[in-house]
Amino acid sequence: MIKVLANDKIDPQSAKELKEQGFDVNESHLDKEDLKKELKNYDAVIVRSATKLTKDILSTTVDDGKLKLIVRAGVGLDNIDKKFAEENNIAVKNTPSASINAVAELTVAHILALSRNLHQSNVTMRDGKWLKKEYQGSEIEGKTLGIIGFGRMGQAAGKKAHALGMKVVYTKRSGPVEGFEDFQFLTKEELLKTSDVITLHMPFNPEVGAVIGTAEFDLMKKGVLVINCARGGVLSEDALLNALDKGIVAGAALDVFEEEPLKTAKIMNHPKISLTPHIGASTEEAQGRIGGEIVKILSSYFKEV
């Protein structure tokens, strides 16, 4: 029987389907030390963002282990040492399409929250303050949304923002994308200078580091809003704090952070930052789609081997 460790939980219906197909599924969560001891006993492991499958953990499965497959229930693979895994004949798969709509909707929700000061008023009203005059916001219709990283996530966010009346511009290293003639392709520098709202939608590359740092913030329009629902490392939190203090950035919304769970007090307590705890894919619908993709991946992989 093929043993599967769902270390960060999966959709209950998908777990049921795997068990019905004959997989032995363990839904217990193992911490780092227990993973070092036990991971070698499993044929496959399913993780979300919480579990970090680093080289020191994966190396315990190489000599006498049976691990053949890692499935990331989501998009980003920065919590997995993919290079080491594949060098040791451990396949790495993810579910890149399943959470697109959920992340795009959260992006738009954060844009609206910042534009209308929802993140601030929700807190101050609970403190008994009625700050009606202080919370004059702005409408997003007619504003320019700049999307950095125009893959499937960026495209979905752009479509939703455009439907709400925003002008959408984007930048992508490979150039303009066919089928999006209503949107304008710009260089990164042009986008930074002209956008009223900027949202990031790309994976984190540790060799590149942050794509938005001090130099990029210095190019932005004063009063810009910045959204990051991608990966924490693509935006420098120190540079963001500096840009907020200088008045370049009027507000920021972060769903992802350089260190998770978030521990940086200056980020956590800044009144101009709207925070969510990495919930981009945390909808009932997205988790169901992710679970369905996991079932397909496991069934297909072990049918072939």
Structural class assignment: alpha/beta
Tally the helices: what do you get? 12
Assembly annotation: single chain
Order of helical and strand elements: EHEHEHEHEHHEHEEHEHEHEHEH
Work out the count of structural domains: 2
CATH-level-2 architecture of the largest domain: 3-Layer(aba) Sandwich
| Biggest beta sheet attributes | 7 strands, parallel
Mean pLDDT across all amino acids: 96
Helix content: 25-40%
Number of strands: 12
pLDDT < 50 stretches: none
The rounded Rg comes to 21 Å
Q: End-to-end distance, in Å?
A: 13 Å
CATH fold assignment of the largest domain? Rossmann fold
Kindly provide the name of the CATH class of the largest domain.
Alpha Beta
Shape assignment: elongated
Give the CATH superfamily of the largest domain: NAD(P)-binding Rossmann-like Domain
Q: Secondary-structure map with pairings?
A:
Elements: E1 3-6, H1 12-20, E2 24-26, H2 32-38, E3 44-47, H3 55-58, E4 69-72, H4 82-87, E5 91-94, H5 100-115, H6 118-126, E6 144-148, H7 152-163, E7 167-171, E8 184-185, H8 188-194, E9 197-200, H9 214-219, E10 224-228, H10 237-246, E11 249-254, H11 265-268, E12 273-275, H12 284-304
Parallel strand pairs: 1-2, 1-3, 3-4, 4-5, 6-7, 6-9, 7-8, 9-10, 10-11, 11-12
Helix pairs in contact: 1-12, 5-7
How would you describe this structure in keywords?
2 domains, Rossmann fold, 12 helices, alpha/beta, 305 residues, seven-stranded parallel sheet
